[in-house]
Amino acid sequence: MFEVGLYHYITLAAVLFSIGLYGVLSSRNAIRVLMCIELMLNAVNINLVAFNNFINIEDLGGQVFSIFILTVSAAEASVGLAILIALYRSRKSVDMERFNLLKW
Amino acid sequence: MDETTFAGLYQFGFWVFAATMVAGALGVVFHRSIVYSALMLLITFLSIAAVFVLLNAPFIAAAQVLVYAVGLTIVLIFGIMLTGDKPFVDPVGQERPNRFWLMPAVASTIFLGFLIWALLYPTMGFSGINGIFVSLMDPATNPATLPSVQAISTDGGITVIGQLLFSRYLIPFEVASILLLLAMMGAILLSKRTFPEEEGETLATVETIEPYAPQVNIEGNTPSLSSSHSEVEEKETLGVH
Predict the structure, then answer these.
(1) How close B199 gets to chain A, by Cα (Å)?
(2) B23 with B89, same domain?
(3) Looking at beta carbons, which residues of chain B come within 8 Å of A58?
(4) How many helices (H) and strands (E) does chain A have?
(5) Domain extent at residue B131
(6) How far apart are CA B226 and CA B217, in angstroms?
(7) pLDDT tens string for chain B (241 positions)?
(8) Fewer Cβ in 10 A, N or C end of chain A?
(9) How many domains does chain B divide into?
(10) What are the Cα distances from residue B198, in Å, to B122, B195, B203, B204?
(11) Smallest CA–CA distance from A88 into chain B, residue
(12) Where do the domains of chain A lie?
């Protein structure tokens, strides 16, 4: 059990993903929500690279897919921060509880 | 270095970096100051890069350090500095905690329990549904428990990754470039500052002024007033002739 294998890496990624999920659901600061989304994407990256390493090390398709996820998360962070700054201009806050314009 | 020492170092490194990663992630979520939580995020990203090194992916580790630990953290800190928020922060600069923490905690705990159960399920002897996981999780049938002993190649797999990016994954590669371009344009468009009163002025001036008049205005704003006027006069005389 103490020999580190695929199971340990997947469990680590699951723990990281759950921490990120809790942060996304419970944070009040919108920038912290962005950080937690990055944590979740990183957990997915760990899963991809771990499966690539333990299943088929000759074919590096998993690492290539983690590069794509890295690209998408960079784009997501830039657009998310732009949306946050636009929201901050209109609402003068980044409090998630104040973004209630569409709340019924 | 013999095999057992290497294996011991490998496992020690895994547990150390796993501990720093989980501690950093908990700090991101639970620290009350947002700047400190950005620094915790940096620690988490560096630990994830170290785990990528343990997983035979040194190129992904370098990209992780470059993109996440340097670029994204700096962008997030810029975002923190640009949005100084007063209303839900007490005077010391620490956030007041959220009232709604119970439901997210329950939801994420159930999610984590489900994931762990789905991981444990094939190894419990129920070899029914997903047989591939049985062969993967069982150490007897899966010999690849120590990946770094069998390194992929001397260049860290960069050659293979480059060939894959330009042969099998060519279309996703191009789509990713288009996505980056669109994200850059969207970020510029969204965060562009707009002044309503100035927009009204420019609209009014554009509508009322003659087509040649803005050129004169632009040249008149330059420091060299006399030369621009002389050029305008020359143009006018040329036009007359």
Answers:
(1) 17
(2) yes
(3) 152
(4) 3, 0
(5) 100-151
(6) 14
(7) 677 787 788 888 999 999 999 999 999 999 888 889 999 999 999 999 999 998 888 899 999 999 999 999 999 998 888 887 655 565 555 666 666 788 889 999 999 998 888 777 655 444 444 444 444 555 554 444 444 444 555 677 888 889 999 999 999 999 999 999 999 999 999 888 766 655 544 444 444 444 444 444 444 444 444 444 444 444 455 544 4
(8) C
(9) 3
(10) 66, 5, 8, 10
(11) B83
(12) 6-98
The residue among A82, A6, A62 whose CA lies nearest residue B192 is: A82
Interface test with B, best of A10, A15, A36, A78 (most B CBs within 10 A): A78
ipTM: 0.93
State the count of interchain CB pairs (< 8 A) between A and B. 248
Give the CATH number for residue B79: 1.20.120.1200
**Architecture of domain A6-98 in this structure:** Orthogonal Bundle (1.10)
The alpha helices in B31-143, defined as continuous H runs, are 34-54, 58-63, 73-82, 102-120, 131-137
CA distance A83 to chain B (A): 6
Both B87 and B115 in one domain: the answer is no
